[in-house]
Design goal:
The chain has 377 residues and is α/β, with parallel strands linked by helices. The chain has helices at residues 10-20, 23-30, 37-48, 85-88, 92-103, 117-123, 138-150, 169-174, 184-191, 194-206, 224-233, 246-254, 276-287, 302-310, 320-352, 368-376; strands spanning 50-51, 66-68, 71-73, 77-79, 107-109, 128-132, 155-159, 237-243, 259-262, 292-295, 315-318, 365-366. Strands 4-11-10-9-8-7-6-5 form an 8-stranded parallel sheet. Strands 1-12 form a two-stranded antiparallel ribbon. α1 (10-20) packs antiparallel against α15 (320-352) and α14 (302-310) packs across α15. The longest helix is centred in the C-terminal third of the chain and has 33 residues, at 320-352. The structure holds flavin mononucleotide. The site of flavin mononucleotide has 22 residues, from loops.
Length: 377
């Protein structure tokens, strides 16, 4: 029995990842900011959405297939950009991108990755999105945009929700920093995880040395003018990520965004941030079909995806689960996470009487607040 056979859900995968990774690395991925309140709230918010079942529907054949931005996807899901994939597994970005291609879902390469745009395009293929930070040294961001265009990336996803460095005390406590340095507490932590040390860092050293992040760390004071400027430069699909208000969503659409990603960065920036699923309905309403609305932050079950789609999202993004899978078994671990999401979705879709993605709509959402508003009116 392989270790993956013992993973029945994403939480199991997280637990295995916790055992495999050095503590500083695991917490860098797993935790949020300050007191991890936003992470807990993301989970609470998903749980508080309840589904109404529709019965006596023929659900013998169900499908998670959908079309987003003209591309057929195996699931209404994309791999969210995460700067750490190459540190939890040797050439982790490539392995995650390959798993995404096999599942026929988009892979988003973070601009602060250890693998280059060109290597991902050449060696992984599939549907590729590039995440972009607009840095103070603007020309570095624009150079990435041009390289992604030349390499055939399908979409640009501009992240707006890191205007200042988040307060992540646990990283300082663990002695963990990026670019990765092995000093003090972090070095002891690494030595206590020889399998990770040999399998990841050892393999980099054996194959030419530790790759370095190509991009700087500091985000710019990005404004809507930058979005309009990027719109001019990028001819394909452009998304804006980190939207939590209807006003900002409308502004993004006015600047030419094809989609907004409702996100609190997985609770990693502002610990008091509202949960994305809570603000999704008002954003969907404000956008009014002029652009697509995607969502991330806290998706851990197939039912979470069903809820987001029923509330108007075209697809969701997932960050940590893929990294946990990757940490446990590389590409095969990421495959497993995606297959868990898929099978949980198929079960949920059967239970709510919606055999296709197009069937998922607001009628399956139970929201007491709306009901009481109606009664009061
Ligand atoms: C380790 C880690 C690194 C991340 N790095 C980036 C990044 O470089 N750019 C970005 O836009 N979002 C980044 N994110 C946020 C994800 O894209 C995504 O918004 C978040 O993980 C979604 O929440 P989830 O982990 O609950 O699925 C990162 C998330 C994690 C966990």
């Amino acid at each position: 029995m392989s270790v993956l056979d013992r993973c029945y859900n994403v939480a199991d995968m997280r637990e295995l990842a916790r055992r495999r990774l050095p503590r500083g690395m695991f917490e860098f991925i797993d935790r949020g900011a300050e007191d991890d309140e936003a992470i807990a709230n993301n989970q609470r918010a998903f749980r508080s959405v309840k589904l109404r079942t529709r019965v006596a529907v023929d659900v013998s054949v169900r499908s998670t297939e959908t079309t987003v931005f003209g591309r057929d996807l195996g699931l209404p899901l994309a791999i969210a950009p995460t700067g750490a994939a190459g540190l939890v597994w040797y050439r982790g970005e490539l392995e995650l991108a390959r798993a995404a291609a096999r599942a026929r879902i988009p892979y988003t390469l973070a601009s602060r990755s250890l693998t280059s745009i060109e290597d991902i395009a050449r060696e992984a293929g599939g549907i590729l999105w590039l995440q972009l930070y607009v840095w103070t040294r603007r020309e570095m961001s624009l150079a990435l945009v041009d390289r992604a265009k030349a390499a055939g990336f399908d979409a640009l996803l501009v992240t707006l929700d890191v205007p200042v460095d988040p307060n992540r005390e646990f990283n300082r406590r663990n002695g963990f920093s990026l670019p990765f340095t092995a000093t003090g507490r972090a070095a002891i932590d690494m030595l206590r995880h020889p399998r990770w040390l040999a399998g990841v860092i050892g393999r980099y050293w054996a194959n030419g040395g530790m790759p370095v992040f190509e991009a700087p760390d500091k985000a710019d004071n990005v404004t809507w003018d930058s979005i309009a400027e990027l719109r001019e430069r990028w001819p394909r699909t452009m998304m804006v990520k980190g939207i939590l208000s209807a006003e900002d969503a409308v502004r993004a659409v006015e600047c030419g965004a094809d989609a907004v990603v409702v996100s609190n960065h997985g609770g990693r920036c502002l610990d008091a941030a509202v949960a994305s699923i809570d603000v999704l309905p008002e954003i969907v309403e404000a956008v009014g079909g002029r652009a697509k609305v995607l969502l991330d932050s806290g998706v851990r079950r197939g039912t979470d995806i069903v809820k987001a789609l029923a509330l108007g999202a075209s697809a969701v993004l997932s960050g940590r689960p893929g990294l946990w899978g990757l940490s446990v078994a590389g590409s095969a671990g990421a495959d497993k996470v995606l297959s868990i999401f898929r099978s949980e979705m198929l079960t949920a879709m059967g239970q709510v009487g919606c055999p296709t993605i197009a069937d998922l709509g607001p009628d399956i959402i139970h929201r007491p607040s709306l009901r009481s508003a109606r009664v009061a009116a």
